[in-house]
Amino acid sequence: MTTPQSLIARLASPDATGRTEADIQSDIKTLLTTADFDLDTPRLEEQIGDGSRRRIDIATGATVIEVKKRLTNENADADYINQLAGYVTTRMNQDGSRYNGILTDGKTWWLFEQSPANGSFARRSTFELAPGATGVGLIEWLQAVLATRSNITPTHANIESLLGASSPAYDQDVAYLLDLYAQVRTNPTVGLKRDLWARLLRSALGTGFDADNNKLFIDHTLLVVEASVIGHAVMGLPLDDLIQHPERLLSGDEFRQAGIYNVIESGFFDWILLAKGGQQYLSRIVKRIQMFDWSDIDHDALKILYESVINADVRKGNGEYYTPDWLAEGVTAKVLDKPLEQSALDPACGSGTFLFQAIRRIITAAEAAGWDSPTIVEHVQSHVFGLDIHPVSVLLARVTYLLALGEHLHDRGDVWVPVHLGDSMQWYQPGDHEENVITINTEGVDLADVQNATLFSIARTLTFPLNSMGDTDTFDQLVTAMTDRAKEHTDPAKPRPEIDSVLRRFGITSDTKDYALLVETFATLCDLNAEGRDSIWGFYIRNQVRPLWLSMPSRRVDVLIGNPPWVAYRYMTPDLQEKYRAFADRYNLWHGGEVATQQDLVGLFITRSVAKYLNDGGTFGFVTPLAVLSRKAYEGFRAGRWGTYLRGEFTETWDLEKMRPRGFFPVPSAVVFGMRHTFHDPTKISEEPACGFPPTKKMLSGRRVRNDWPATYEALTITEKKNVELGADTGDRSPYNEVVVNGATIFPRVLFFVVEQTQTTSRLGRTQGTTTVESYRTKLEKEPWKSQPSWSATLPSRYVFDVHLGSTLVPFGLLKPWRAVLPIERQQLMDEKQIHNADNSMRDWWRDVSQRWEDNKTKQSKLSLMENLDYQRKLSKQLNAVKHRVVYTASGNTLAAARVTKPSVIIDHKLYWMPASGEDEAKYLTAILNSPVTTEMVAVYQSRGLFGGRDFDKNVWRLPIPKFDPADPLHAQLVDLAAKAEEVAAGVDAGTYGFQKHRQLVRNALAEAGITEPMNTAVKTLLGEDD
Fold first, then answer.
1. What are phi and psi of 67, to 5 degrees?
2. Neighbouring residues of 385: CB distance < 8 A, sequence distance ≥ 6
3. Is 948 found in the same domain as 887?
4. Which of 86, 280, 283, 628 is most buried, by the most CB atoms less than 10 A from its CB?
5. Are 997 and 865 in the same domain?
6. Cα–Cα dist 872/156, whole Å
7. What is the span of the domain harbouring residue 521?
8. What's the burial of 721, exposed, middle or buried (CB within 10 Å: 0-12/13-18/19+)?
9. How far is the C-alpha of 321 from the C-alpha of 323, rounded, in Å?
10. Residue ranges of the chain whose pLDDT lies below 50
């Protein structure tokens, strides 16, 4: 059945003449039975069942709906809310589960729920049915709240609307979780779990991670719960059992009973079970997930779930970006070229995209070779491994691993999913930790704190020997047995329990070298338990040890794949920066000075991974920022001489900047492929293995096919191009470099830029020589200035100036300048005292805008408004300017330049300017700057964004642009071409188009007029770039 639009229209109009509560109630019942809710008939006027005569207007599932004639606000409708709260409380007491309460008049819908922390009845979500609406939004809102549908396909749209951050289910569940957390946040066990969670993410994400952000901890808890339910569902485990016994959800018991290990285990997020109402919360989440049909899902569903809950801004701040399937498949196919012979590791596996591709590639080859399912599963789990430091990602990757095995799980032996919550960088371990121990700091800020292997330093540490690491199951059992015995020690005043009997079970006696170390570690575990801080250490240690196991020479892999973390040095914590510097020095990667803050974890991560996990002669393929191929900060990485013995030979690189559509990463990206070599005898220079970058790169261009590498590959155009590396700056510059100046920082714009009233509407008129102005506002303003109110004033006209910005510049021409109020008198910048003694209106204006600046500037800014306006004297330098100046764009994909002939015009910081000795020199320079070859040549020096080059700045003058010589025929030709170009540009009518379109129209007109080609040819000759 479909819901009649007339019904939706009636619900949106509760004030319509003759409408009663009974009418609204009847329409809502019809809505619930005709729309897609999979409901039994809703019950109207149902007795509450508490012995009273109270009746619920509409009861359906775990939801109570109370209907009123008209809702206004919570204060006015407090009696209605209290009535609904009574119904919900009674229902919760009757069956012990969570209940929704909805209060509505058909148009306004308020969702309430009782807090598990204090019993308050809080509104969790609101929906407003607008007049003329189709009702789709209301139905989706109710579907998310009621959670009664079934067999829904887990598409991006469905997951987003029913579980995502914009859904009422999310609002409700997050609020409930926050209340649960409020109950137990002071519990030492919960505090430890949260601290360890924060430590891992701080190490992974640097200062971009806010350790005090409870909201992110709650979001991660929600994701782990939801992903755990999905993990059960995709394996065909009955969810009804989890509804009845939700405590089993986060332990992974059902998986272990099915012979599948290391998928779900008690870790950071089972704190829910310590809070009153925690089990009811888990049951509701199971019901939500149960709405979907998980029997045949794409592995992307887990990625979609994560992105639906964690919004794009948070993911960007945390440096979290997922590799598209087509690219992961292409990289994996190139390096895993002998899939039945090679082992592979993704040391930063995220949600498991590369693991999925590696497993599917192995399975395809194994099926073709006639292998049976038990053989395939056993081979995969001993040949494909994943590590990640992000606890949510690891769970998603484990479920993805199982999805990749698919139908082969039906016939197999036990499965141990080899995806671990591990520190791939091994920040913790001193030196190269060949001493066969693992050191776990129990109180550090992040994973880079421990500088040596001592048991007690500033913070207590746990130290375990790795001599038994050839058998990781035995190690796990040892750790579990020690932590279980330590849990017996609850009173610090009493003696610790004995550990000898436990150690003897593992063949460790007092005469073995590991005995004393383990006894000391056991004592620390006991002390932590007595403080209520031990419950998670077994889980934590077992996972942290995996990277060490994989880095042992006998356990290294043949192939490394993945997308390493992109964390800039400037965003690392101080401890991590110190450790990064030490590691980078060891591998010859550190570049200080001007590029120190531009260095990124990506190069060190790849190098460290190759050093620790890759066999000699093994291959690697990693996705990286495009900057890795050319920028100075990665010069040591590209050289491949990573320390005394380690060598990295890069065999091929892919430049992905021309791939379309854009946006699969936040900045242009690349892929690097290579091999590991060992320089066994550095004294024999002639025998050094191959290392370093190839001279050329492959430029991949074309449209990608979302989930299909073969189809994408067929559609690609691949060209070989010289890879230009920007190493040490030679310092060579054009002579013009010394006179180029960036424009003034006339910011915030709302405080300075104005529109003038051409005439006054008042009969009183205004004083001669004054002008009335008001703020000039645009849609491009950003907070906090976007929210600032406009201002207006009548000021002396001499304080209002023409200003040229990037948006008023086109090739060989200037558009109408903006107008700005500036504290300039007689071509001199006024100081605060002069402003105070100036015209009253000027003084009042300056006082107002200065206060706004102080109230809203960033916390980092120490500058006054005047200091910001004249930062580096960029405004002062423009005053008393020469007649002829050249301006060009500070950033963009294509350079644009023009002449300025009015000395009083001010130049904004979105432009650079330079003086010219005369009109001809100015034309000469604009011809060079507007030529396509100049943009092409300077592009190699630009930082790159999703839409091409970003900043031109003074990089233009790294080109060999000679000083103007009027006697040089080539220079004179450029002057003539510029003069013709100015005429063409002046004749272009852009109508109402914006400046970007106007620029393109000018360039088109120049090409059609036959000016661009000869001008470009002349500039090529001038710069030595002849074909």
1. -105, 135
2. 343, 344, 345, 346, 418, 419, 420, 550, 557
3. yes
4. 628
5. yes
6. 50
7. 427-558
8. exposed
9. 7
10. 430-435, 445-459, 469, 945-949
C-alpha distances in Å from residue 938, one per residue of 594, 595, 726, 730, 928:
20, 19, 12, 16, 12
- Residue 950 identity (one-letter amino acid): R
How far apart are alpha carbons 218 and 181 in whole angstroms? 8
For 647, the token pair is 């060598």
The answer to whether 843 and 786 have CB atoms below 8 angstroms apart is: no
**Residue 652, token pair as written in the block:** 């091929």
- Judgement on whether residues 801 and 927 belong to the same structural domain of the protein: yes
Instruction: State whether 504 and 436 are in the same domain.
Output: yes
Domain presence at residue 316: no
Residue 606 contacts residue 653 (beta carbons within 8 Å): no
pLDDT at 303: 78
Q: Are 326 and 706 in contact (CB under 8 A)?
A: yes
d(CA 432, CA 436): 10
User: Do 362 and 471 sit in the same domain of this protein?
Assistant: no
The H-or-E segment that residue 655 falls in is: strand 646-660
Which has the closest alpha carbon to 200: 452, 439, 454, 427? 427
Q: Is residue 209 part of a domain?
A: yes
List Cα–Cα distances, 365 to 19, 370, 380, 1002, in angstroms: 68, 9, 12, 56
Tokens of 20: 């009663």
Q: Do 289 and 384 belong to one domain?
A: no
Into how many domains does the chain fold? 6
pLDDT at 456: 25
Is residue 263 domain-shared with residue 374, that is, in the same domain?
no
Q: What is the predicted pLDDT for the residue at 309?
A: 79
CB 931 within 8 A of CB 1019: yes
Sequence-ordered list of residues with C-beta below 8 angstroms from that of 110, at least 6 positions apart, any chain: 71, 102, 103, 104, 123, 125, 126
Say which residues have a Cβ less than 8 Å from residue 252's Cβ, sequence separation at least 6: 263, 264, 265, 266
Q: What is the pLDDT of residue 683?
A: 86
pLDDT score at 859: 83
Judge contact between 940 and 948, C-beta under 8 A: no
For residue 489, the model assigns a pLDDT of: 87
Pairing verdict, β 108-114 and 55-60 = unpaired
Length of the chain: 1027
Peptide bond before 915: cis, by omega within 30 degrees of 0?
no
- Is 846 within the bounds of a domain? yes
Last residue of a domain, one of 504, 527, 558: 558
Instruction: Kindly state whether residue 1027 falls inside one of the protein's structural domains.
Output: no
Distance, in Å, from the CA atom of 184 to the CA atom of 271, rounded to the nearest integer, reads: 8
pLDDT of residue 473: 63
Task: Summarize pLDDT for 47-95 with one digit per residue, the tens.
Answer: 777 667 778 889 888 899 999 999 999 999 999 999 999 999 999 988 8
Q: Any residues with CB less than 8 A from the CB of 514 and at least 6 apart, and which?
A: 465, 467, 508
pTM: 0.74
C-alpha to C-alpha distance for 133 and 127, rounded to whole angstroms: 12
**Pairing verdict, β 108-114 and 121-128:** antiparallel
Q: Which residue blocks in 300-382 are alpha helix, DSSP H?
A: 300-309, 312-317, 325-335, 353-368, 373-381
Give pLDDT tens digits for 442-452.
555 444 443 33
Instruction: Say if residue 495 is preceded by a cis peptide, omega within 30 of 0.
Output: no
Same domain, 925 and 861: yes
Supply the pLDDT for residue 704.
83
Amino acid letter, 543: N
Please, what is the Cα angle at 837 between 832 and 839, to 5 degrees?
110
Spatial distance between the Cα atoms of 440 and 544, rounded to a whole number of angstroms: 8
> 149, 176, 198 — which closes off a domain?
149
What is the structure's pLDDT at 807?
A: 95
Number of continuous H segments (helices) and E segments (strands) in the chain: 35, 36
Q: Minimal CA–CA distance to 329: which of 671, 721, 719?
A: 671
In what helix (H) or strand (E) does residue 1015 lie, and over which residues does it extend?
helix 1012-1022
Helix 1012-1022 and helix 995-1008, axial crossing angle in degrees, nearest 10? 90
d(CA 385, CA 387): 7
